Amino acid sequence: MTTANAYPTTQIIRTIGILGGGQLGMMLAEAAIPLGYQCVFLEDNADCPASLYGRVFHSDELDAFIEAADVFTLEFENTPTSTVEHLTNLSTAGSKQGMFPPLIALDIAQDRLKEKQMFQKLDIATVPFMAVNSEAELQQACQTLGLPIVLKTSRGGYDGKGQFVIKEDSDIKAAWQDLKDAVSGKGALTPTPAPLIAEGFINFSREVSIIAARGQNGQVRGYDLVENHHHQGILAKTQAPAVGTSHLLKQATDAITTVMNHLDYVGVMALELFVVKDARGNDTVLANEIAPRVHNSGHWSIEGAITSQFENHIRAVVNLPLGDTDNVHPAIMLNVLGQYPDISAVLKIDGAHYHSYHKAERDDRKIAHITLMPNDVANLEPALAQLVAILPNKVGLDKKIVAVDDQAKMADDLTVADTDDTDDTDDTLDKISTQSEDSQADEAQK
């Protein structure tokens, strides 16, 4: 008996190599299979979520991983740049079909100061900021930006670590003592010497994000703006589309398109934004950070968009036309943290879509997500209330949102808003490593 070749004779790419094997890698593989592509993964945790969909190579098996794949991508931005540079060189030499996204995108995303400087260069509004290399420069930043400010390491840091909220002058010395070692690279947060970054306080009303895909031909297709809510520094809920933001969509789309074109980017990118008032009292957005990968705030798109963020990323990587990004139906996505709910109870809720990551339970670990899409939009909030009631970890959604007037508390919130940038990861790695986002977080907690 003969078996037909599953691949078109014109198809050069058959296998996609993904750096990392966490849930993002798993969902990328799920999107690749219907398109006729297989995936392999470079990941030190053999039992990672992505292992359900393809072979997992340990970092010691880098050469074998390279041999097994035709084109390469990644699931987390803190992949060591040396690994990405090596794969890029192979592609440039013609032995492989490409490494996407480009190295420059990782270099910028791994450095908060470079990121803000890029926004500034591209005339994209962002929070006021200054580089800090000494206590004297920190004093000057406090005077120039005004208190409160958030002082951060420009590289490394995770889940709120590597940050200090300076609320009054008496905090300056303590903040410098706490973070100064990062400037010389002696601290535990980052082995790479880099300036600190001081960010001015902004009174933002909410955090939104936009996701877009860019193809190898330069085509960009953007998704709707979504609104994000965090719980203890971890994304808890995303609403798509964000209610009452249609007037901000063009500004956000223009910003992410400008960034992607500047970087000659290929694949899916997320841009996190703060909604603030301008001098005339009108809504506007300030760029916070980019994520050069598929993103937690885009998980709703699996059911909620015509083409999911995962499929569009695969399409871009293998040089297929990008798919329609229109919203099919309003949706709310919730992360399941720490403990699994009763799946039967979840699926009794009309419009509930359950996605398990096949992980062991652990406090505050992202182990699944649930997307709510009831047929009647009027039932969206009631469905959310039903879901929250049965979640073991209610991620703070059982509490009423209280208006915050205290600027110092808002400054703390600003710090929290910058802690979910790597989807459950410790982004301190500068070594050659291929641990997925969740494996890195495990290392951080040991």
Number of domains: 2
Distance N to C terminus: 53 Å
Number of helices: 15
Q: What is the share of helical residues?
A: 25-40%
Gyration radius, in Å: 21 Å
CATH architecture tag of the largest domain: 2-Layer Sandwich
The helix/strand class is alpha+beta
Count of strand segments: 17
Taken as a percent bin, the fraction of beta residues is 15-25%
CATH first level of the largest domain: which class? Answer: Alpha Beta
List low-confidence stretches.
1-10, 401-446
Instruction: Categorize the overall geometry.
Output: globular
CATH topology of the largest domain: D-amino Acid Aminotransferase, Chain A, domain 1
- Could you describe the largest sheet, including whether it forms a barrel? 9 strands, antiparallel
Rounded mean pLDDT is 89
Q: Specify the CATH homologous superfamily of the largest domain.
A: ATP-grasp fold, B domain
